[in-house]
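User: Structure please.
Assistant: Input sequence and predicted structure:
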Amino acid sequence: MGRQLFTVGPVHVEADSLMAQTKPMITHRCKEYKALHGAIVEKIRKALCTDDDVFLVGGSATVLIEGSIRNGVANRSLGMTNGSFGNRFIECGTANGKDVVEVKVPWGKAIKPADIEGKVGKDIEAVHWVSNESSTGVLSDSVALAECVRAQNPDALIMVDAVTSAFAADLNLPKLQPDALLFGTQKALALPPGLAIGIVSDRILEKSKDMKNKGFYTDFVKLKKNADDNYALTTPPVSLLYALDYQLDRILAEGMQARYRRHDEMAKMVQDWADRKMNGLFPEEGYRSKTIGVINRGDLDFDAFHAALKQKGFEISNGYGEVKSSTFRIGHMGDITPAKPKGLLAAMDEVLEEMQ
C-alpha cells in the first residue's frame, strides 16, 4: 500500500477524484441522474470533437468491445492484431460465432495500411484493431488504417479499441470517423475501473436494428433509446459517474492539446531513459505509445529489480503476452505530470546501481 502507480492500469487516481465519488447516492432514474449523465456525454463529445452517440455501461471496456461485434457483425469481420489485445478483439468475434479474417503483424511493429491492402472485400462487415497496443507499446496510425478500409469497402464498419489511447493521444475523431471507439475509466481518464465508454455512429446503430442474437446488456438499440433520454439501460456505477463528471471538468480546463503534449513529454522521458539505461524501447520508431513505455530488459532480473523499486514506493508493470519475459512496462498516463516519472526514473537508477 502507498506505492505510486506507474502501471498500465488501473493507474494512479488523484485524491480529489476519489473524493468526488463520495457524494450522496441517487437512483439512476431520477432527474439528478439524468442531468449528471447528460453533462458527462456532452463533456466527452467536446473533449473528443464528436457529435456521435456516447454509451456509458458498467463494466470494463471489453464489454463494449464484445458489444460492438455483436451489434455490428452478422457473419464476417477482419481483425488486425499486433499484440495480446488485438488478439482479444478477434477472440470476441470468434467467441460469438463470427468468421474473423485475421491479419497478424509481428509484435513490436505497427499495423499499417499495406497490411490490409486488397483484403477488405465486400464480404467484410467490419474491420477492428487496437489503436495503442498495451502489450507492445505500439501506437498505430488509426486514421490511415480507417482511410484504407474505406477506400476498399466504404460499407465496412470501423471498430477501434482505444483503451490506452483515448484522452492521452490525439486520435483525430473527425478524420478517423469510427463506428465504435471503445475505452474505459481506469487508464488515461485516471479513475477507478468499472465503467466502459463507447462512441458509436449512426451506421452501427442502423446495423444493430436487424442484428440477431446480440444479447441484452449491450444491445445498442436499447442503449441508444435510454441514452437519448440521458439514462443508462441498466444500473450504472453512479459514484464513478460523479468522479467522471469531475474529471472531465479537470481535463477540459487543462485543454486537450495541452494534455496530449504532457503525455508526449512523459513518453519522451521514458524513451530517453530506456536508451541510456536499458536496451531501448521494444516498439519500432515512429509508432511508439504516448502512454506506455515497453522496455527491452536484456539480462535484468526484473523480479529483483521490481521488488527493490517497490521498497522505494514505486510500482511498474511486467511484460505481457509473448514478450513477458523480455520486456517490462512503465505506464505514464492520466493525471501524472512529468515531475512524477522523473522521480520514478531516478529511483530506478538507484536500484540499478544497488544491483551492480
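The mean pLDDT is 97.
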